[in-house]
Amino acid sequence: MSTIADNIELVSQRIRAAADAVQRDPNSIHLLAVSKTKPAQAVRDAYAAGLRDFGENYLQEALGKQAELTDLPLSWHFIGPIQSNKTRAIAENFAWVHSVDRLKIAQRLSEQRPADLPPLNICIQVNVSGEASKSGCTPADLPALANAISALPRLKLRGLMAIPEPTEDRAAQDAAFAAVRDLQNSLNPPLDTLSMGMSHDLESAIAQGATWVRIGTALFGARDYGQP
Q1: What residue ranges carry the coiled-coil annotation (predicted)?
Q2: Helix/strand/coil for 214
Q3: Is the pLDDT of residue 1 over 90?
Q4: Is residue 136 situated within a structural domain?
Q5: Residue 169 CB: number of other CB atoms within 10 A?
Q6: What is the domain count for the chain?
Q7: Number of neighbours of residue 92 by Cβ within 10 angstroms
Q8: In sequence order, which residues have a C-beta less than 8 Å from that of residue 47 and are 6 or more positions away?
Q9: CA 53 to CA 78: how far, in whole Å?
Q10: Which CATH number does the domain housing residue 47 bear?
Q11: Helix, strand, coil: what percent of the chain each, to 5?
C-alpha cells in the first residue's frame, strides 16, 4: 500500500514531466494538497514529506485541523464555495482564498482581514464551462470584478481559479484551460496565478499555464464523504 510520501513523489514526477513537455520550469508550478475529508494526521504526514500548502473546502473541518496542527508552519488555502457568514473566519485563518466569485464576498474578506496579517491572496473563480451547478463569475463579468477587487485594502488579487467540466478528452481539457489562461492574459494589470488542474487533468492544466495544481485523490486516496 503506497504511503502519502510515495504519492507525493509520483505526483511531483507528473508535474516535472508535464512541465518538461512544454518547456516550463517545474519550479513555477506549485502543488496544493487538497486535504478535505482527510484527518489532521494525513496533513502531518504530507508535511513530513515536504508539503507546506494545504487546501480545504469546508470551513469547520479546516478550523478543526488547524487547531490540531498549530505546531506546523502550514499555509492554508480556502478553495470551496463561500457563504457570507463564513468570511470572517476565512479572513482570519487562511493565507489564500481561491474561490471568490462576487464582490460582496471580497469586500467582507477585505474588511475582516486582521491588520497584523499580510494581505490575503485572492483568486477569482471563473465558471469557464458555464455549468449551472458550478460556482464562479462569468467571463463577461470578470474584468469589472477584477478591477473592483484590486482596489480593496487588505487583499492582494493574484489570479484566476477554475474547475472546468470534467472530461477525459485531452483536447477538451486543453481548450477549457486555455480559455482560463486567455482570460487572465486579458486583464490589466497582469496577474501571476492560475489555479487549475486536479488529479485527473494536471498535465493539461500545466500545458496551458497553471501555477497551482490542486491535488487530493492522487495524494491522499479516495475521499470518504461520510466523514465530517
Answers
A1: none
A2: strand
A3: no
A4: yes
A5: 9
A6: 1
A7: 14
A8: 69, 72, 74
A9: 11
A10: 3.20.20.10
A11: 45, 20, 40
